[in-house]
Amino acid sequence: MRTLLWIIVICLSCPLAGSDGYALWLGHQLIEDSIVRQDYRAALTFIDGSTGGGEVATTATNELRRGLSELLGVQPLRGPGEAGAHGIYLGLRGRSARLDHYLATADVPDLGSEGYHLVYHDGDVLLLADDEPGLLYGAFDLLRQVQALTDLRSLNRTEQPAYAHRILNHWDNLDGTVERGYAGFSIWNWHQLPEYIDQRYVDYARANASIGINGTVVTNVNANSLIFREDYLDKAKALADIFRPYGIKLYLTARFSSPMELGGLDTADPLDPAVIAWWKEKVEEIYARIPDFGGFLVKANSEGQPGPWEYGRTHAEGANVLADALAPHGGIVVWRAFVYSDEAGRDRFREAYDEFTPLDGRFRNNVLVQIKNGPIDFQPREPVSPLFAAMPRTPLMLELQITKEYLGQGTHLVGLASMYEEVLGTDLRPTEPGGEVHQLISGIAGVSNIGTARNWTGNLFGQADWFAFGRLAWAPQTAAREIFAEWAGLTFGRDPEVIDSITQMLALSYPACVNYMTPLGLHHIMNTGHHYGPGPWIDDLGRADWNPYYYHGATRDSIGFDRTSTGSDALSQYPEGFARRYADPATTPEKFLLWFHRLPWDYELAGGNTLWRELGLRYQLGVEQVGEMADIWSGLEGRIDAERFRHVSQHLAIQQREAEWWRDACLAYFRSVSGRPLPEGVPAPPQTLEEYKALTYPYAPGIRPQW
Ligand code: BDP
Q1: Pair (459, 524) in one structural domain
Q2: Which of 105, 267, 269, 546 has the most Cβ atoms closer than 10 angstroms to its Cβ?
Q3: What's the EC number here (predicted)?
Q4: Which helix (H) or strand (E) holds 324?
């Protein structure tokens, strides 16, 4: 008996269990302090649901029951409780006497679709919504509050999502590989679906619902028509059935040439009657299986994907044929603006804007145009795409990358919430209201970083990016720091020192990465193909804009890409007030300097350093910041379970070495071009430039190792 007691005591005091990371931020830690635990138990003795018993509402109740029993160590009863007992009443407006009694006295606004009101009233916790998903999101919110030991008496929250579309984009191929995926293989087991339902699908849906994600595109934008074949649709239906109780809609990517490949037609011309009929029928087939199917995501005429251009049609004409087929069923088309022509010549920065702005207003109502945050391609830091301010008559989606293609992939710890915050808060029309990116969009998509890794994201800290994506898609003005702290608490437990330290590390990590990879507005200088490691010297690929060199053009005298009126004039795509500031290097934020200007190495920056000196110091700073992150982490030894401690320590050691590699290789190269000595305080690269150039790493993800 005594041994058993000891085991219990030890387990209660040891760092958060579930240390392989599978539980994500849903590890619900039993409240350690018995007095506090008792208080919560007394306040939450039962759950009384007045929901009409729909699937999503049932999930809400079940999740509350499960979460609270993990947090409190007892299962709340089914309500209502005995006289005098306190508990949770959850329900839709007009369904419960207890809630209606509250509503008679309180002024609760229209909660709209998916919104909720969570309040403490006369000793009970009330969770109210106007639809079932609202109850689900409110339930997860309440669990977060209890995990964070929020005083229930202070509860009074009214939440509504900023956007109706909060969607994950999986770049998962039907063969199980994941394009730009660094967490193993695809979690969709197409071979064993629909009969075998992996528990992961359910846990995946739960995790998404818990952070407000309400849609998922399960296939790659480089699409395969096979997904529309009947057997695959049966498999997709099985997934949709799992996701539905969690308020998540399934979407598929549509390959534009499917009517030919699958339908046997000799054209995919969007104005051809047979093509129109094919899409209509295909869509009906899908809805017969998946009545709440979300719609299609399409990459067309980009990087070799088929599209309407083959037939002399516009993107709008291409999108509209799909939109017309989906409209009667309530589905949408998300059409990507990530296009650049197969022929080189123009500044790629300009292309999406040039292609899409003339089409504003020409898309059907159920089409959203999805724009990557930056005009080039998910660089560590990009100026925001000018297209966000240029299509006032078209609903727009922002596309963010959660997977870290150009950001150290699965190896580096980089808290992307900082980048998302920067993007969403960018004001493209500084001279008038309403021009911040989060105000210009109708939805957010995130390219998933999820795979078969036991902890879902490979690098444990990748979970923080998935979490941040969901939280920001719901409330885009949330501060990154707040999200970091929330994630740390939910993932690593309640120790305030652990939470603070992890918050600090995450906050440092994004600036660190930009510093050691692409300071001062350098971009696209990653090694080609796999995009891992530095390669600013590469200039021998077939087409100019495939070469990292093209993006900085460093010579003995100067460096940078002139996008002002003396150069490609991409700057003119921005609203006037924004463009004016960026037209002059002296008023351009330094973090974007080389995105827009070509400057002499001796150009003097605001702080007094020359461009050359500042560049060197930034690389150095990035390395030091990673060192700081590693130091903070080592201070947590013993406060975090050994498994996760080791996992992160090892990754940080690699990141440290690779940050140095980035600094050394880039500076060795830029020094050789500029002919200048390294600034004081920056150590000499330990290898020669030739040695850095000769490095190969065939094991980097995205490469097929060859003999
Ligand atoms: C690039 C990736 C490529 C994707 C493409 C896209 O390198 O693998 O297919 O974006 O977004 O970043 O379509």
Answers
A1: no
A2: 269
A3: 3.2.1.131
A4: helix 315-326
Token output for 227: 């997904």
- Where do we find the tokens 């350093």? 609
**CA-based nearest residue to 662, from 625, 703, 702:** 625
Ligand 1 neighbourhood includes 338 CB (under 6 angstroms): yes
- Is residue 298 a part of any domain in this protein? yes
Q: What is the 3-state secondary structure (H, E, C) of 53-69?
A: CCHHHHHHHHHHHHHHH
Residues involved in catalysis: 303, 377, 405
Do 291 and 274 lie in one domain? The reply is yes
- CA 664, CA 309: separation in Å to the nearest integer? 44
Domain that holds residue 451: 165-478
Closest approach atom of ligand 1 to CA 171: 9
- CATH number of residue 199's parent domain: 3.20.20.80
Measured CA distances, 425 to 253, 434, 695 (Å): 29, 11, 39
Judgement on whether residues 141 and 171 belong to the same structural domain of the protein: no
- The CATH code of the domain that includes 128 is 3.30.379.10
Q: Could you please report the per-residue DSSP string of 542-606?
A: SSGGGSGGGGT---SSEES---STTTT-GGGGS-HHHHHHHHSTTTS-GGGHHHH--EETTPBPT
Which pLDDT does position 362 carry in this prediction? 98
Tell me the whole-structure pTM to 2 decimals.
0.97
* CB-ligand 1 contact for 524 (6 Å cutoff): no
- State whether 10 and 71 are in the same domain: yes
Ligand 1 atom 13 nearest Cα: 221
Same-domain status, 119 and 134 = yes
Contacts of 40 (CB under 8 A, 6+ apart): 31, 71, 72, 146, 152
Residue pLDDT, tens place only, 333-345: 999 999 987 666 7
Instruction: Count how many domains the chain has.
Output: 3
Q: How far apart are CA 452 and CA 703, in angstroms?
A: 19
CB burial class (10 A; 0-12, 13-18, 19+) of residue 29? buried
120-150 pLDDT, tens digit per residue, is 999 999 999 999 999 999 999 999 999 999 9
Secondary structure letter of residue 640 according to DSSP: B
**Cα 678 to ligand 1 centroid, rounded to whole Å:** 35
Residues 80 and 98: beta-carbon distance below 8 Å: yes
Name the token pair of 4. 């058993």
